[in-house]
Amino acid sequence: MTGKLRIWKNGERPDLPWEQTRCEERGELYQLLSGPFCRHMSALTLRAVDGAWRGRHYHREKREEFFVVTGRAELIWKDIETGESGSVVLGPGTRLTILPGLAHALRAVEDAVMIEFAETPYDESDSIRYEIE
Question: What is d(CA 84, CA 102) in angstroms, rounded to the nearest whole number?
C-alpha cells in the first residue's frame, strides 16, 4: 500500500494519545482532534446510488483526514507518482489520512456519513481533477 494513505480505527494509534473512542449504552463519543490545528471541516453524506462517486481528484498541498460516522464507503486511490493503486471498504469508526499526490474517490456501499477535516483552509485550485481507472 502506498505511503500516502493511512487507515486505522479511531483510538488505535499510540502516537495520537488524545484520540479516543468511548462506546457506552447511552451512545458513542469519538474524539477526533485535540491539539492539532484545524482550518477546514466538512460533513459528507454519501448515498448508495450507482455511479455516485465523490472526489475523483488529488491535492498538491492539502492533507485530508476523514472519519466514517455511519455506513460503509469504498475508497479507490492511485498514487500519481508511482502508479500504485488500490481500493478498500471503510466502516464506522474508521479514520484515514490522504496525503498530497494521492488521487482518490469515495462511493457509498451503503448510505454513509463522513467527516472531513484538514489543517489548511479549502482551496479549490488545489483540487486537481483525476479520473481513477
Answer: 10
**DSSP one-letter code for 133:** -
Query: Which of 98, 96, 124, 122 lies closest to 39 in space, CA to CA?
Result: 122
Answer yes or no: pTM beyond 0.90: no
> How high is the pLDDT of residue 14?
85
Dist CA 108 CA 46 (whole Å): 5
| Structure confidence at residue 90 as a pLDDT band (50, 70, 90) | very high
Phi, psi of 82, deg, nearest 5: -100, -20
Q: Give ∠ CA 48-53-59 in degrees, rounded to 5.
A: 145
All three cell numbers of 133, joined, read 481507472
The cell for 74 is 469504498
Q: Which fold has domain 5-9+37-129?
A: Jelly Rolls (2.60.120)
Supply the pLDDT for residue 16: 83
Sign for the pseudo-dihedral over CA of 111, 123, 85, 68: negative
Residue 25, SS3?
A: coil
